[in-house]
Amino acid sequence: MSAFILRRALQALAVLFAVGLISFAMFRFAGDPVNQMVGAETSPAERLEIRRSLGLDDPMAVQFARYLAGAARFDFGISYQFRQPVAQLLKERMPATLELALVATILALVFGILMGVYSALRRDSALAKLFQAISLIGVSLPTFLIGILLIYLFSVILGWLPSFGRGDTARLGWWTTGLLTVSGLKALIMPSVTLGLFQMTLIMRLVRAEMLEVLRTDYIKFARARGLRTRAIHFGHALKNTLVPVITIAGLQLGSVIAFAIITETVFQWPGMGLLFVQAVQNVDIPIMAAYLMLVGLIFVTINLAVDILYTIVDPRLRSSIHQPA
Amino acid sequence: MSIRKTLLAAVAATLLAAAADPASAKTFRFAFQGNYQAADPYTLNETFTLGLHAAVYEGLTKRDKDLKIIPGLAERWETPDPLRWRFHLRKGVKFHDGSDFTADDVIFSADRVRAQGSDVKTRIPSDSQWVKVDDHTVDVVLKTPNPILHYEWDTWYIMSKKWAEKNNATAPTSASATTPSYAALNANGTGPFILESHQPGVKTVWKTNPSWWGKKEHNIDEAIFTPIGSDATRVAALLSGEVDLMDPVPLQDIQRVNSNANTQVLTGPELRTIFLGFDQRRDELKYSNVKGKNPFKDVRVRQAFSKAIDVNLIKDRVMRGASVPAALLISPLLFEGSKEFKTAAVDIDGAKKLLAEAGYPQGFEVGMDCPTDRYVNDEAICQAAVGMLARIGVKVNLNAQPKTKYFAKVLATGGYDTSFYLLGWTPGSFDSWNVFANITGCRDDSGKGGPFNFGGYCNPKLDELAAKILVETDTAKRNAMIAEAWKMERADVSHIPLHQQTLNWGVNKKVKIVQRADNQILLYWVNMD
């Protein structure tokens, strides 16, 4: 087992290396950061001097090597825009993104499963049809549009919820949370719905399809024949067997929820890592872009590793293949 | 402490904080499309940032509501001879940390602003000498006469020497810093507001300074700034009353903001002039089907382009009325004599004739560079120009790119890689000389001379006149020379001026604020019902 984890950890390092290499190769197409860092009247000579002192004139390989050397010491450089250490900025912004992603995933799981089960059991009811229609919207409408529509309805017209930001936050050590204040919770509603809507529809459709499949299997028929209560059949047996793929998908999707929070965070001016990244792209803030891409790579690799390990716990058949190096 | 206790403590702290907030405190909330990046006043020479610094910091001079220069931290000044200026500093002024403001702070700021890494070096001549006469008198000794020495001093902010030394912030927070700077997150000025907290890219909070030396012209106790990049969200935040002011209002939302009961759009002309420029330096255009020669070196071609571009149509169709067509490369607010100059009249036949005379009866093809996110509707303006030039047979191949890519290509650092382009310019000193130096001055390939003269237009006679304007101390004579210089520039059609875009601030009707043409949001003029 430990050999397996070690091997996967090495693979993860290789993946991160590749992510870094590809991002550095692409940064030179992003534009010249210096022009975003100085005022309009700064002379060409000074701009060149800044370029030189930032090391932007060095070959890409040299810049990348320098970055890796820093990253190995957890030094991710200084943001060009804010003149603050990138690690510090990411640390400040991370709680906002993780809370948003977590709440969005929980919302998606709870409502997705409930709606999925209902529309599988009462396939022809009006409510099930409504759920299907909602899920179609969730799949087809782009995230930013949903966000803007929600803002206009609930902020501008009804005035119930704040249109931007995180509200008041409470501080727990270095972690800031919006879950403990009224304004923080109110601010969380629309962004998390926007972010979680796609996952919710995905889960709902998955649960519905799986559930219909399971309800047709022999052991459900036998359970009915034995005279078990419908409730026990539906929730004790059918649902339980539906959940294995659901948990897999939800786990894997958590990574993309964090990564795709970029759009939601931009629409709601949510002060998380995604917004930081978008601003960094607009201003060619290479240190932030590099660190964010590496971090997202790390999150994906970690989640995949965790899912792989969980598989071996859930399904003993997989264990033998792990002990024999492929 | 257990997790539960921590949570309880956090809840209690939040409730207490909410309860302690007095209901009567007036808070002004505002949003801008960009960030307030670093609080160090020498880090970035950009209008919005300079305006926010003015809440906390003050210069030796200030500018009033009509941009007239008035005394700031200097009570008065005189010029005993053209090479020596004497500034008498205001007495009894204190920095926010309680220390006294003296001549030492001025000398220190003069050194710091010229140091390596400062983006506002041009505020004072690099070869000027600063002499402390006594605690409240400073002499500036110049190498050459300079009638506009103090024109930009409203945004050269005076910092405390002691504070900077104590916090290891004597060097400006430079663009290429490798260590974080204290002054980027903290501030200690003499101004009407105290920087309470600065979380770059998220939120900045100021509290009013109860012991400010000046006469208070605001009634707010607190101001909170949030950057909101998304246009739709910024509009929504204003309409829902969550922010009291936001800038800019996208042109397509002006109607909507005005039709809402509680909000309106404050508009006014901005100082920046948008114009088109031509490569007149290369012997062969880089992006054109004309080989072996450069059509833009011929003044007739430039005149033809100018006659084909309809600035009024751009105003009506592209800018939805929100622009002021320009006759010169400088705003009429910044040059008194500008009334003599008229915008170029549209004359398609005349333009075609000029092109034919220049040897291009069938027109020609040229590539155009244009930013997409720098000026109001910049890309749409370029598209309109493409259509207008097609009417005289010139086929323009538009290359519209985000500002990061655009500027990397067309600036000196990109080798002035353009044949035809759109640019906007605000003279930082609010004076024509700045335009002659930066936009129309002859330059070499590295940008020595007129660094932002991307096209390399060059008229040595205009440069000679500009050099005289720089040192002329007699105002009437100087203005006459400026008018003559503009006439020379117009005869050459060095560029095609298009317009000044308008400022569009969305405000809640309970807010009274001064909208100055330089587009600075100045907290010390904010009043709320």
Describe this structure in words.
The complex is a heterodimer of chains A (326) and B (529). Chain A folds into 2 domains: 1-81 and 283-326, no CATH class; 88-272, MetI-like (MetI-like fold). Chain A has helices spanning 2-27, 33-37, 44-53, 60-72, 86-121, 126-140, 143-157, 182-215, 218-226, 230-267, 273-282, 286-314, 319-323; strands at 170-172, 175-177. In chain A, strands 1-2 form a two-stranded antiparallel sheet. By secondary structure, chain A is mostly helical. Chain B folds into 2 domains: 27-217, Dipeptide-binding Protein, Domain 1 (Dipeptide-binding Protein, domain 1, Alpha-Beta Complex), CATH 3.90.76.10; 273-503, Dipeptide-binding Protein, domain 3 (Roll). The longest helix of chain B has 18 residues, at 3-20. The chains are: A mainly alpha (326), B alpha+beta (529). The interface between A and B is large, with 63 and 70 residues.
Helical content of chain B (DSSP H or I, runs of 4+): 25-40%
| CATH architecture type of the largest domain in chain A | Orthogonal Bundle
Note the total helix count of chain A: 13
Largest sheet of chain A: 2 strands, antiparallel
- What is the CATH domain class of the largest domain in chain B? Alpha Beta
Count of domains of chain B: 2
Helix content range of the residues of chain A, please?
A: over 70%
Strand percentage of chain A, roughly? under 5%
Describe the strand arrangement of the main beta sheet of chain A, using strand numbers: 1-2
Largest interface: A-B, 63 and 70 residues
CATH topology of the largest domain in chain A: MetI-like fold
CATH fold description of the largest domain in chain B: Dipeptide-binding Protein, domain 3
CATH class of the largest domain in chain A: Mainly Alpha
Radius of gyration of chain B: 25 Å
> What oligomeric state is this?
heterodimer
